[in-house]
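Lab notebook, bench 4. Continuing the backlog of folding jobs that were queued last week. Each job is logged with the same field layout so the records can be merged later without manual cleanup. Today's entry covers ArfRP1-family small GTPase, a 194-residue chain. Filled in by technician R.K.

JOB TYPE: sequence-to-structure
TARGET: ArfRP1-family small GTPase
LENGTH: 194
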Amino acid sequence: MFSLLSGLWKYLFTKTELFTLIVGLDYAGKTTLLEQMKSMYLGMDPLPEEKITPTVGLNRTRAHPNWTEVLVTWDVGGQRSLIGMWDRYFNEAHAVVFVIDSSDTVRMDEARSTFHTVVADPRLAGAPVLLLCNKMDKDDAIDPDVVADAFGVTDVPDHNMHVAPICAKDGTGVTEAIDWLLAALQTSPRQIIR
Ligand SMILES: Nc1nc2c(ncn2[C@@H]2O[C@H](COP(=O)(O)OP(=O)(O)OP(=O)(O)O)[C@@H](O)[C@H]2O)c(=O)[nH]1
Ligand SMILES: [Mg+2]
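JOB STATUS: finished
OUTPUT FIELD FOLLOWS
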């Protein structure tokens, strides 16, 4: 009887932890996205825009998108001096979210090459990759299909890849993008302890 009850308890209350690494160049909107996710999945008030400063180090959040899973997200600063820190999380990450500022045409090439360095890393082999085209509210935002072409996402081996438009500021597109990620994690070859 005890083992039946403890099994039921475990079934109801044990959640699968899904480790997700959020990276991208500085100013792309990663921390704004994290604040939006806190609001959507934890019911917390997001930090006001003026309180979000460039990340020096790491922001970590445990979000609850549903009853059975916890999305443990690591948002690492994107300044050049911090990019070298990203790979500390590669071995443990189940998935990668790469955020770009869709309105920043000047740094698009830098974003593209940084993206390719990340997805080519063997420590991330098999991890689903979500490329988020952020700041879609801006008039000069590039179309996500154009970004997908420019980044050559269909030519990247070893990853289930998806490109999605979002506006981290007001949350547009975020639920759909995270839903894709959760579904991709279900079929991911990376070992997830459930
Ligand atoms: N218009 C618009 N601005 C955004 C959006 N998301 C973020 N921003 C702005 O972009 C700037 C940078 O946002 P952050 O979230 O700090 O960017 P970050 O990627 O975390 O930057 P680092 O921590 O330096 O790596 C801030 O001024 C945000 O308000 C968006 O969807 N639309
Ligand atoms: Mg940040």
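OBSERVATION: Residues 8 and 130 are 34 Å apart (CA to CA).
SIGNED: R.K.
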